[in-house]
């Protein structure tokens, strides 16, 4: 079973299915999207960033786009995959955002054990997800995002209650990247330079660049992607002009945002807005 939702106006993508969604990771590769893997009646074996994990029955784990996944074994899995444009395009509470506890709060992949009560709750939510994926109307995208928010709230509560859970990172490189992401989330509207975040982290820009290259990204790319994501949000959900949006995101000259937006999306903000109007 595999259900796919695509939001052509935003580029949002959501996939729900079984272990077949993990077949592309039979050879180690960067995840590239957000993934939840839920085991049911059987264990699963994976490697994340070269570290082997055996995931016990009735467990849930979260993976971020920056990690490398090698899927080796697993049956009767329930898998959710989504990109930034699907979920992160909307504002969420810090703990359940794309920079929240599940994805950027700990150095290691969070594995959550599900008791019988939690299993029933997630089973019910999964049924609603599947039903909604088969209901195509103008509010389907919003409904699916609400369901994913509920999924993440449930998961975050369990993670926070997990005995021995610690937000203290042990992997310096991963912790540095996540710390950078959290700082960008806090300051991106005012600060666009790598040097600002490097100072906050007591690192040099060169150190950040060398570290992030291990994750196939750069500090500046992360900053730019967050800026463009916010610009898309404001273009989609407000009536603000491109000029107003540019000022809100911290650009003194709207043309600077326009050039960055076009470089990242191959469209100008105005063309993106026109495409949205055609799709509704």
TrEMBL record:
Which domain of life does the protein's organism represent? Bacteria
**SUPFAM superfamilies in the record:** Homeodomain-like
Which segments does the entry list as coiled coil?
Answer: none
GO terms for molecular function, please?
DNA-binding transcription factor activity; sequence-specific DNA binding
Q: Is Manganese among the key words of this record?
A: no
Q: Where is the HTH araC/xylS-type domain?
A: 178-275
Q: Which UniProt keywords apply?
A: DNA-binding, Transcription, Transcription regulation
Gene3D superfamilies named among the record's database cross-references: Homeodomain-like
> Can you say what this protein is called?
AraC-like DNA-binding protein
Whose protein is this, by species?
Answer: Maribacter spongiicola
């Amino acid at each position: 079973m595999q259900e796919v939702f695509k939001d052509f106006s935003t580029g949002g993508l959501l996939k729900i299915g079984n272990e077949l969604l993990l077949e592309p990771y039979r050879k180690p590769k960067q995840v590239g999207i957000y993934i939840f893997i839920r085991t049911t009646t059987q264990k699963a074996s994976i490697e994340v960033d070269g570290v082997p994990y055996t995931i016990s029955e009735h467990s849930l784990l979260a993976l971020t786009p920056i990690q490398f996944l090698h899927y080796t074994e697993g049956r009767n899995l329930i898998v959710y995959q989504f990109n930034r444009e699907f979920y992160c395009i909307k504002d969420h509470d810090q703990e359940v955002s794309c920079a929240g506890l599940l994805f950027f709060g700990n150095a290691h992949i969070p594995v959550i054990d599900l008791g019988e009560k939690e299993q029933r709750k997630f089973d019910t939510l999964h049924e609603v997800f599947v039903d909604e994926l088969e209901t195509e109307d103008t509010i389907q995208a919003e409904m699916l995002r609400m369901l994913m928010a509920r999924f993440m709230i449930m998961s975050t509560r369990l993670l926070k209650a997990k005995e021995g859970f610690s937000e203290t990172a042990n992997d310096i490189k991963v912790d540095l990247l996540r710390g950078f992401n959290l700082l960008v989330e806090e300051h991106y509207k005012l600060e666009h330079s790598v040097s600002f975040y490097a100072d906050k982290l007591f690192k040099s820009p060169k150190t950040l660049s060398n570290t992030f290259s291990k994750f196939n990204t750069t500090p500046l790319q992360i900053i730019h992607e967050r800026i463009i994501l916010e610009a898309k949000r404001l273009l989609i959900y407000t009536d603000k002009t491109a000029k107003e949006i540019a000022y809100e995101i911290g650009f003194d000259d709207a043309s600077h945002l326009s050039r960055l937006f076009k470089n990242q999306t191959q469209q100008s903000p105005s063309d993106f807005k026109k495409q949205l109007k055609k799709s509704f």
